[in-house]
Amino acid sequence: MEKNSARWIVISLVVLLVLATFSLLWGQYPIDLHTFIQYLGYKLFGMSGGDSSTFALLDNIILQIRLPRIILAILIGASLATSGAVFQAMFVNPLVSPGILGVLAGASFGAALGMLISDQWFVVQILAFCFGFVAVGFAVLVGTMVTNSRSSVMLVLGGVISGSLFTSLLSVIKYVADPYSTLPAIVYWLMGSLSSAELSNVLLISIPMLLSVFVMVIMSKYFDILSLGDEEAKALGVNVKMIKIIAILVATLASSLSVVMAGIIGWVGLIIPHIIRMAVGPSHRLLIPLSAILGALFLLLADSVSRLALSVEIPIGILTSLIGIPIFVIVLKNARAAWN
Amino acid sequence: MELEPIVNVSDLKFSYPKREVLKGIDFELYQGEVVSLLGANGCGKSTLIRLILGLIKGKGDIAIAGKKLHDYSQKELASHIAYIPQYHNVPFNYSVLDMVVMGRVFKLGVFASPSKNDFEIARTALSTIGIASLENRAFGELSGGQKQMVLLARALTQEAKTFIMDEPVSGLDYGNQMRLLEMIKHLSSEGYTFLKTTHYPDHAIMVSSRVVVMDEGRIIANGTSSEVITDEMLKSIYDIDAKIVTHDSRQLCVPMFRE
Question: How far, in Å, CA of B87 to CA of A321, rounded?
């Protein structure tokens, strides 16, 4: 059984690698494989051969434009799908997505506030990140302390309240924003896009994002147990409170950073875990690592389509919704056996 | 029997904001016993076992193997006591083997996954319970009786020697009820200790070495089934007329309809 798991992980990693390579080569300026191999030899081993002016152009296309975007798609896809799978296990509900505790609404409000009060992009990013956490903190506060409850249902209700609050506050920002400059910027940003990826930023953000995904993957064996409900999980020797705190922290970190870098990209966190459950069953020991890889694969594919299919680039958030909705309908049709 | 009880409860009280559930319970469970907790709905049986499992907190003392309950981590407690809940549905339809191997997870290090050995232990537990053939079936597609047996197999993989069961036969058909009671009896002969709640005096008579009767948050009787389960006791806690008769040297509980 575990050998089977390893096989699935290796196969999906190979597919991801192949797609990433194609995505690196395809675009408005296609790069042929031979030139690319020459370029790799030149960059990695200092090998001669090939045209240096072409290499300068490839430096620009690959390092400045395509590579950061590909890495970002992989990081965000992995983060959102893994967070979705973790929250679905934690809240014992297969219809939960990463935004359940209000992180996406909070980060959206933070980003919009940033655009309203500052021209600096890092202010927007910092506010998006901070308000993602503020929204989740508020949800936890309402769901546990105000109601004096430890039930997951109250936590979800706290998330609903927090999400609604920050969505309302976002509307206030949109209402007061300059309708000719700031408002379109906010609306466009909320549609989600990977186009502003820069290599240095992407590499910097990859550390906390990969760390979050890694923590969720190593905790995967606990999520099977957590999905049985708090009391049974405790009786099975699991420190439920600690695991929930760590899970909420890392899932919020990963989701917040994805909003910081690319705005709102929906559906990934909901449909990817479902597709994997249908294919390989519900055990989180395989579901969580595969969610990371297939989430990355899905978003990279969506981004490649959004770059290549039409002459005008479609915001990726719109595309993931358009792809996600029919997939979800198919999943729902077939999913009853997978989750009763 | 050892002198030191596995579970020792003294002056245990528990209240909800508007209702006192346990009003001072003194209770001991010794190794090798099969103790049935009997009592009407709402008498505090389930609350008592939830307190012993550390799932809720009350006032008073609970000691497990001589050490206070609140000095145990959840992990340490799971290596002493395994909890077998009533069979239930799970939101994600895990395989039977996956369900059973969950009993091993608290023993694993942070970075470890269940090993070949853990799966072997899970398979052995399934064989012990007599359901090895269900290994690859989906838990959600099993009958109630099979689910209950799977949960029992999971408890075996914890390698705890004391099992706590909350109304284990609830919702099972008559055949499965008897098979489960037989299994409890078998495991008890292998050295496992059982504390279980039940609504059936007959079942308490069949498998218990001791019966504890609760009423309105207090223990009102504690002894062997023949000492405790009497016509008067059944009348007092269930408000029914029933006779305890003896057939082939076995006690049977026969309820009588009122004229």
Answer: 39
Q: What is the pLDDT of residue A10?
A: 95
Tell me if chain A has a CB within 8 Å of the CB of B98. Answer: yes
Contact: B105, A221; criterion CB under 8 Å:
yes
What distance in Å separates the CA atoms of residue A134 and residue B110, rounded to the nearest whole number? 29
Distance of CA B16 to the CA centre of its chain: 23
Tell me, what's the ipTM? 0.93
Domains of chain A: total: 1
Q: Which residue of A has its CA nearest to B155?
A: A236
- CB contact under 8 Å between A234 and B114, yes or no, is no
Q: Model confidence over B149-161: pLDDT tens digits?
A: 999 999 999 999 9
Render the burial of A54-91: b for 16+ CB within 10 Å, e for the rest.
ebeebeebbeebbbbbbbbbbbbbbbbbbbbbbbbbbb
- Within 8 A of B108 by CB-CB distance, chain A residues are 221
Q: Which range marks the domain in which residue B55 is found?
A: 7-88+161-256
Show which of residues 279-338 on chain A sit within 8 Å of chain B, judged by CB atoms: 281-283, 285, 337-338
User: What one-character DSSP code corresponds to residue B211?
Assistant: E
Q: How many domains does chain B have?
A: 1
Taking 50 as the threshold, does the pLDDT of residue A105 lie above it?
yes
Q: Crossing angle, helix B144-157 and helix B116-129, to 10 degrees? A: 130
Cα separation, A210 vs A78, whole angstroms:
9
Question: Does A255 contact B at CB distance below 8 Å?
Answer: no
Task: Tell me what the mean pLDDT of segment A332-339 comes to.
Answer: 62
Integer Cα distance of B81 and A50 in angstroms: 70
**Is the CB of B106 less than 8 angstroms away from the CB of A1?**
no
Nearest to B77 among A94, A227, A237 (CB): A237
What pLDDT is attached to residue B1? Answer: 47
Would B234 be classed as within a structural domain? yes
Q: Do B83 and A228 touch (CB under 8 A)?
A: no
**Of B185, B121, B128, B113, whose CA–CA distance to B158 is shortest?**
B121
Domain encompassing residue A112: 2-335
Question: Given CB atoms, is B123 within the 8 Å cutoff of chain A?
Answer: no
Q: Which of A151, A278, A283 is the best residue to mutate to test the B interface, defined by the most B CB atoms within 10 Å of its own CB?
A: A283
**pTM, whole model, 2 decimals?**
0.90
Q: What is the pLDDT of residue A329?
A: 86
**Taking 60 as the threshold, does the pLDDT of residue B257 lie above it?**
yes
- B92: contact with A, CB 8 A cutoff: yes
Tokens of A322: 């358009």
Structural domain contains residue A340: no
